[in-house]
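Quarterly update, task 2.4: zinc ion-bound model.
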Amino acid sequence: MSKRILISDLIDEASCYQLLREIKWKNGIECFECGSKDIRKNGHDKGVEHRQRYVCKSCNKSFTDITDTVIASNHVPIQKWMSCAFLKDYMSNKQMSKALDLPENVVGDMRSELSEGFLKNSILKDWDW
Ligand SMILES: [Zn+2]
């Protein structure tokens, strides 16, 4: 049986994480806890090649590219989150569910999470949709 190709299979994981970092840290990487810019890179997340880990040298907290973003809400790969972000205004939950091979309720949750953009706990909308 051949594998069905999804649009998200054609999207590059590294580019998705790069875009997320640009949205999240317009002025350079900051600690989510204390706001310090004294950050050390700390390898990549297990199983997710391009998701960078960091440690704050000021308060010692660890975080990753997805900390405080909607992408941390579930285990759906970032390529499907990005696809959903771009397609949500053109597709119903049912269509998106088929296009991304995700349950309809998961797509519905992602859509509502994305209504204010990728960043959680931010008063600013992060993307001009
Ligand atoms: Zn800190």
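Highlight for this quarter: Residues 9 and 71 are 17 Å apart (CA to CA).
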